[in-house]
UniProtKB/TrEMBL annotation:
Transmembrane segments: 6-29, 50-73, 85-110, 122-143, 174-193, 220-241, 253-274
Domain 7TM GPCR serpentine receptor class x (Srx): 15-275
Protein name: 7TM GPCR serpentine receptor class x (Srx) domain-containing protein
Pfam families per UniProt: 7TM_GPCR_Srx (PF10328)
Superkingdom of the organism of origin: Eukaryota
Keyword Mitochondrion assigned: no
PANTHER family: G-PROTEIN COUPLED RECEPTORS FAMILY 1 PROFILE DOMAIN-CONTAINING PROTEIN, SERPENTINE RECEPTOR, CLASS X
Alphabetized UniProt keyword annotations: Membrane, Transmembrane, Transmembrane helix
Gene3D superfamilies: Rhodopsin 7-helix transmembrane proteins
Length: 295
């Protein structure tokens, strides 16, 4: 039977996870319905959002219910698959984020070749490779010495002790994610510089275009910064800060599980905040519902 602490932790995981599922499901629907998202860019964004839904969904629909109904199942072989699936979705989110950064950079650097480089076939292959790599990275988790299991000591997932746990946890998860996020940051910074350089070429007489690019310039910079800080902060929180507060059940829970769920919820919220076309879909749904109700 679950303890009172188990119930509290499970309810927190479930509520936060469901909020993340709702926000990212809306983003997925809005990206699908929005005509302003390019074909390739839209598919890559959908891939990233699916990964966010996967993480928040596993936490809210698997981890939380298991903790409430059958806590001992977390210690079983099949219970350990929750951690494996979570890491797979995490990798898919990071790789999809990387593709988004590359897509934006190429769009500004080689605009005439963009449609050729990111044609449908190439985009689909890139997404298949991203998800294949995400699965390949967690293939070793099928072996118990390499498992990533839920721990009731902190209500978070922990890599197994030993050489395999160190390799998959520190080397292939933490360090690999840090390297990719740094590459994403550098790519986004390059895109930001491209926007500024292009803006300077516009004559002062073209005030409308100059003002539009200034707004786009700031929006892109702050969006990239917000997403980078969110993902980087989660890694530091999970692997570093949680070790500092080790022994304090709820602080460790907050800096690991809660932080992990929140970063993928916030990531979806960032897309809504920085893209008017995504918010317009919501307004369209509201107007449609209002019209239907009146009729």
């Amino acid at each position: 039977m679950p303890t009172q602490e188990d119930v509290v932790a499970a309810l927190v995981i479930m509520v936060l996870g469901l909020i993340g599922v709702v926000i990212n499901s809306y983003v997925l629907y809005a990206v699908y319905k929005s005509n302003t998202f390019g074909c390739a860019f839209g598919r890559i964004c959908m891939s990233h959002t699916v990964a966010n839904i996967g993480i928040t969904g596993v936490f809210s629909l698997l981890v939380a219910p298991i903790t409430l109904i059958a806590p001992s199942f977390h210690d079983s072989y099949w219970g350990h698959r929750c951690g494996q699936i979570l890491i797979m979705f995490w990798n898919a989110a990071v790789f999809s984020h990387f593709l988004i950064a590359i897509n934006r950079f190429i769009c500004l650097t080689w605009p005439l070749d963009y449609e050729i480089i990111f044609r449908k076939k190439i985009t689909n292959i890139a997404l298949i490779v991203a998800w294949a790599l995400a699965f390949a990275q967690v293939f070793a988790y099928f072996w118990e010495p390499c498992t990533f299991a839920f721990s009731f000591e902190s209500y978070s997932f922990k890599f197994s002790n030993g050489t395999c746990g160190f390799l998959i946890g520190t080397i292939f998860d933490y360090y690999m994610s840090i390297v990719i996020i740094c590459i994403i940051a550098l790519t986004d910074f390059g895109t930001y510089l491209k926007i500024r350089r292009y803006k300077k070429k516009i004559t002062t007489s073209n005030v409308t275009n100059a003002a539009y690019l200034r707004k786009k310039d700031r929006k892109f910079f702050y969006q990239a910064l917000a997403q980078g800080v969110a993902f980087g902060g989660e890694l530091i929180s999970f692997f570093t800060i949680s070790q500092i507060v080790k022994g304090n059940l709820w602080l460790e829970f907050g800096f690991t599980t809660v932080a992990w769920i929140l970063v993928h919820t916030i990531d979806g919220a960032i897309i809504i905040i920085f893209h008017r076309e995504i918010r317009r879909v919501c307004c369209g749904l509201a107007n449609t519902t209002s019209s239907t109700t009146k009729s």
